[in-house]
Amino acid sequence: MKSPKIFKHYSDAGHGWVAVNIKLIHSLNLVDKISSCSYIDGGTAYLEEDCDASVFIEAYELKHGVDSYKVISVPQTRDHSNIRYHYHYTKFRAIESYNHLMRKHRPKEVSV
Q1: In this predicted model, what pLDDT tens digit does every residue of 6-39 receive, in sequence order?
Q2: For residue 75, which of 11, 43, 46, 103 sits 20 to 30 Å off, Cα-Cα?
Q3: Which DSSP string corresponds to 20-32?
């Protein structure tokens, strides 16, 4: 049996987020289903725990199964998380981030 995918849950005194790679959000066709209550930084979306994380988890379970993942809590270190300083999630930012990641991981062309 394949070991489960680990998703990290971050929180501060007022809220929490599940960190998810933007490529995974794209592969589950959720790019336009995440609200601006979530945040994005580079290739990671921080999905707001009350709504967006549930949308993601439901889609992930449908595709990969209930036992295919674990959400682990990262100990809270401050009253106010640095996640709140990232950009709010938008479909445009998610697509831009995904395209950037795909360009970065594209095999280098070999000239002959």
Answers
A1: 999 999 988 999 999 999 999 999 999 999 999 9
A2: 43
A3: EEHHHHHHTT-TT
